[in-house]
Design goal:
Layout lengths: L16 H11 L52 H7 L7 E4 L6 E3 L9 E3 L2 E2 L23 H5 E4 L3 H9 L9 E3 L10 H4 L1 H12 L3 E5 L8 H8 L4 E6 L5 H7 L6 H13 L4 E8 L8 H11 L3 E6 L6 H12 L4 H11 L18 H16 L19 H10 L3
Parallel strand pairs: 1-5, 3-6, 6-7, 7-8, 8-9, 9-10
Antiparallel strand pairs: 2-3, 4-5
Helix pairs in contact: 4-6, 6-7, 9-10, 10-13
């Protein structure tokens, strides 16, 4: 039943519809725009201003996916947000002690050639924008964006804890990976030398290991690596993503330059340490055209084997990588993302075992054939199994002291 309110007129009948439309058109706010003036979807809030920090990879800090609530900066239209961000100092690197009681991480993935790894650090100052390990920082309560490369955790007792685990009854040696999650030779290693301490333990225990790094700093431990190599206990892989120094500077800002990595390959090879190169990740439309040149330069430097991995974008990494493309390569950002989707069954990521490292589709198959042909022609297929039979824990000095004390009773 309709009720009429006394004293209230239906004003809509007294307004000219054409005049109202013209008034709204004149008074309407301009549509929200994102980076570089691009239109945002209807209803989207204005985008935060670019935050490109010198020496840092990520341009944003997406919220932690495990948090129930998240906050985001919002510009009210007066451009105060841009001014506020311009006044912020560059983000500094902080170190926090990691109180983990165990250091060997285990996996049963059919895609990975090892079942155990040690990571002396969590987070990585190299700042590689494409790093698949970024989302793991969310487990610590941090953002996978700038937090991943500025808020680092270190394990000061990593060597002692590793030795304790290797002495456990029934432990069976298999190749242990260093650098499976974050780089063991990132800049802080120069001071803390935790990776060196781990290698010293492995050397004393005759334990096989493999190392993956983007740092030429690996040659600082050449003395230990040579000792391990003489017993067929080590293999080192340098990750070389591009030969273009300018691209490397924005894509992996605090890692060694491509030429320094190739120089490290040569130094390791001349010292008798088995060394390979990983052309990883290959990013369609950005660095994949360099694949053959990377492998050729690696073979010339002394690499004996090579591998490649297609770009992976799990969890928050999708948003981080998309925003980075918009900031640094706006002319090709859309094309690169379309090619990525072509290799990932229409999505930006495919986490299926057997597919996540190589992708699917015509583009991914062509990349695989290019790599196989180049590796064969350049003799980069030299692979041999590391020795797992020599593992032998040395006498435990603490146990000897305890036995000596017990003999007094």
């Amino acid at each position: 039943m309709r009720q009429e309110l006394s004293g209230v007129r239906d004003l809509s009948r007294e307004i000219d519809p054409e005049a109202l439309a013209a008034f709204n058109a004149d008074d309407a706010a301009p549509p929200p725009r994102g980076p570089r003036g691009r239109r945002l979807p209807p209803g989207a809030p204005p985008a935060t201003p670019p935050q490109v920090h010198k020496g840092r990879g990520a341009t944003i800090s997406p919220p932690n996916r495990f948090d129930a609530q998240a906050s985001a900066p919002f510009d009210d239209g007066w451009e105060t947000l841009t001014a506020d961000f311009a006044e912020l100092p560059p983000p500094a690197t902080t170190l926090t002690r990691d109180a983990s009681k165990t250091v060997i991480s285990w996996n049963d993935s059919p895609d990975i050639g090892f079942d155990r790894a040690v990571n002396p650090y969590r987070g990585c100052e190299h700042g590689c924008v494409y790093c698949y390990a970024r989302p793991t920082h969310a487990y610590l309560g941090y953002s996978p964006g700038l937090d991943f490369e500025t808020k680092l955790l270190f394990k000061p007792e990593v060597a002692e804890l590793l030795e304790k685990e290797l002495r456990k009854p029934g432990y069976v040696a298999r190749p242990l990976a260093l650098g499976s999650n974050t780089d063991p030779y990132q800049p802080v290693e120069r001071t803390l030398k935790l990776t060196r301490a781990v290698l010293q333990v492995l050397d004393r225990f005759n334990h096989p290991c493999s190392i993956v790094t983007k740092s030429a700093g690996v040659v600082r431990d050449l003395d230990i690596l040579q000792s391990l190599a003489r017993r067929n206990l080590v293999r080192v892989y340098l990750s070389v993503t591009t030969l273009d120094a300018s691209l490397a500077r924005v894509m992996e800002p605090r890692a060694a330059t491509p030429m320094r990595r190739l120089a490290a390959v040569g130094e390791l090879a001349r010292a008798g340490v088995p060394v390979g190169v990983l052309a990883a990740p290959m990013i369609p439309g950005l660095n994949d055209a360099e694949l053959e040149r990377i492998l050729q330069a690696s073979a010339k430097a002394g690499a004996g084997c090579a591998g490649y991995v297609l770009l992976r974008l799990p969890h928050e990494l999708k948003q981080i990588f998309e925003r980075w493309l918009e900031q640094h390569f706006p002319d090709r950002a859309r094309h690169v993302l379309e090619l990525v989707r072509e290799t990932r069954a229409g999505a930006l990521n495919d986490a299926r075992f057997g597919k996540r490292f190589s992708g699917t589709g015509v583009y991914a198959d062509l990349l695989a054939r290019r790599f196989a042909r180049a590796a064969r022609q350049l003799n980069l297929e030299q692979r041999s199994e590391l020795d797992c039979t020599s593992f032998a824990p040395p006498p435990d000095p603490r146990r000897g002291m305890a036995e000596a004390q017990m003999s007094l009773f």
